[in-house]
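Schema walk-through. Below, the input block comes first and the output block second. Nothing else is stored per chain. Lengths vary across the set, and this one has 374 residues.
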Amino acid sequence: MPMISKKRFLLLALLVIIVTSLVAMREVHSEEEPVVSYLGPAKYYANYSSACIIRVDDFVADPAKLTTIDFNMGKRTVSFQNFQMELINYLVVHHPEARLVFGIITGDASGENNTQLWSLYSELVHKYGWEAASHTRYHLLPPRTADDIAGSIRDIEGNISNYRVNTYIPPYGKVDGNELNMLRKLGIKIVMSDKPLQLKVPSNWYDMHITIKIDGKHPWFMKFLEVTHYLNNRIGGVTVIYTHATSFDWKSPGQMDSYFNETLSNIEDGRTWITVPSELYKYSVESKMLKVVQLNETTFEVSLKKPVDFQPIPVTLKFLVDGSVKAVYFNGTSLPELDSFGYIPEVGYKQIGNSLLISVIPNGVLQILSGGND
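--- output ---
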């Protein structure tokens, strides 16, 4: 049997020591830090399977000033007051987690005669996460004046503090080219039409369609909602539900509440993000512009490829981890561990098995610490 030279023996011994050291370091390292793989941004906040927007038209700022809505003159203001106040009260009491985008007709004397109503709208926006959209001042057909369009936006922003109007709902679903140009200059990001059929994230945010209308006159809509919602959960789609004061029979008290309750029973399945247009728009823009650079095994730099012209919201990042996570830091600040994700985007993290979801506003350094392997 040939003898191994002394030089070769020393080289072999050195190789064994190096390999043994690396294995030992790996074992120690695995007890201190998880092995982390970044998978990319979730399509929707909190990794929900689909998104749903509930849109309601014709909320008013001053019911006494309505002059152009086609209702019976004697019952016009009562109908609108019943519509918006009954719906707000029902949802806040029975479904406080559910959110709407509501189009406001602001009227001439916006804010002067109904400060209590504006205070209520402000609470819906800031406390419950609803979105106030412009539905013009006078609810007229196009062509519309700058006073009608820009005036409504000023009314809303002037009466709801620290709020920016992002969504415009044109009366009768009609908008012309001049109006669109004006809306872009005014900073509007989304225009919602009455056309069908929205089943995915909009490719043109200035022509966001509807999926289905809640209508007390056509109860078959619920079956259609079930089918489209089932489909959207599987394709990662968007459902836009729309309704209006004229959709319900005011001689049947509680009809609207009943329809909303059944609608939400279908939508709130733990897989669907109930959101609002501006939120879906911001999330879509940010997730497409996201840049994540891995600095070391557990540290990542999170940023946007270029600045955005709106206030960013948290985006959910998906990771695969080998081991339990003890803490997550973003820019040196510990993020809260969430028991569950709600509908309003917030920063925090949640681990489910080897899956780790972290929601942050993309502008900083993310560090993931381990509590050791289970």
